[in-house]
Design brief:
Strand order of the largest sheet: 3-2-4-1-5
Largest sheet: 5 strands, parallel
Number of strands: 10
CATH class of the largest domain: Alpha Beta
Strand content: 15-25%
Order of helices and strands: EHEEHEHEHEHEHEEHE
Number of helices: 7
CATH architecture of the largest domain: 2-Layer Sandwich
Number of domains: 2
Shape: elongated
CATH superfamily of the largest domain: Tetrapyrrole methylase, C-terminal domain
Distance between the termini: 55 Å
Helix content: 25-40%
Radius of gyration: 19 Å
Structural class: alpha/beta
Low-confidence stretches: none
């Protein structure tokens, strides 16, 4: 008896931004393995009696190992359960989805991936700006602000990231942005390039800060850790 796994993208956290398919899978789930950022009111959609298992990873906190999360998915599916793996934002963006898929492939367990609203799309919409601008920002690029050790990733394409005509979205960058900003400026990005910090988008903790790449770097240098999910946009931003 083998169950099935639905990778459900929770979007930025507002249940109203879930897709219809995502909501349907949550309402019919037997087991939900959820990220910390997917908790809260979205879990209210899960039927009574379903097992809720927190497998979230947060910077600076004790978190389940990825191999443990993958093993839980396989173990629950092997009982015949309808398993939902609830992931923050869009499941395919910086969520280690490939490792969990590989575990299911190896175990012969079927799955589906249900896409969701990405953090950059949600942040731009909440801030009242587009991600692209005709004649000014024809390219959007997404990067992660830290690697598995928490440091700024190596091997970044600095020429692309320092392009002032692009809009760049930096995930999980609160702690590394001062270093990132210094390197961007050293590679030719104007220090007065517009920047937007978005926290807790679509939740009661939503907050924005607008400035430049240079002023945002100063603001974040030495700042205390903040548990709210943070995204940084910089480049040819409107508004």
């Amino acid at each position: 008896m083998t169950g099935f796994v639905s990778f459900v993208s929770s979007g930025p956290g507002d249940p109203e931004l879930l897709t219809i398919k995502a909501a349907d899978r949550l309402r019919s789930a037997d087991v939900v393995l959820y990220d910390d950022l997917s908790a809260g009111p979205i879990l209210d959609m899960v039927p009574p009696g379903a097992d809720l298992v927190s497998v979230g990873k947060r910077a600076g906190r004790a978190s389940p190992r990825q191999d443990h999360v993958s093993r839980l998915l396989v173990d629950h599916a092997r009982t015949g359960a309808r398993v939902v793996r609830l992931k923050s934002g869009d499941a395919g963006l910086f969520g280690r989805l490939e490792e969990e898929i590989e575990a299911l492939h190896a175990a012969g367990i079927g799955f589906e991936i249900i896409p969701g609203v990405t953090a950059p799309s949600a942040a731009a919409a909440a801030a009242g700006i587009p991600l692209t601008r005709r004649l000014a920002a024809r390219r959007v690029q997404f990067i992660t602000g830290h690697d598995v050790t928490g440091a700024l990733p190596q091997g970044l394409n600095w020429a692309a990231l320092a392009d002032p005509a692009a809009v760049t979205a930096v995930f999980m960058a609160r702690g590394t942005f001062p270093d990132l900003a210094a390197r961007l400026i050293a590679h030719g990005l104007p220090a007065d390039t517009p920047a937007l910090l978005a926290q807790g988008v679509s939740t009661p903790q939503q907050a924005f800060w607008r400035g430049t790449v240079a002023t945002l770097a100063v603001r974040l240098a030495g700042a205390r850790p903040d548990p709210a999910p943070t995204l940084i946009l910089y480049g040819a931003l409107a508004g």
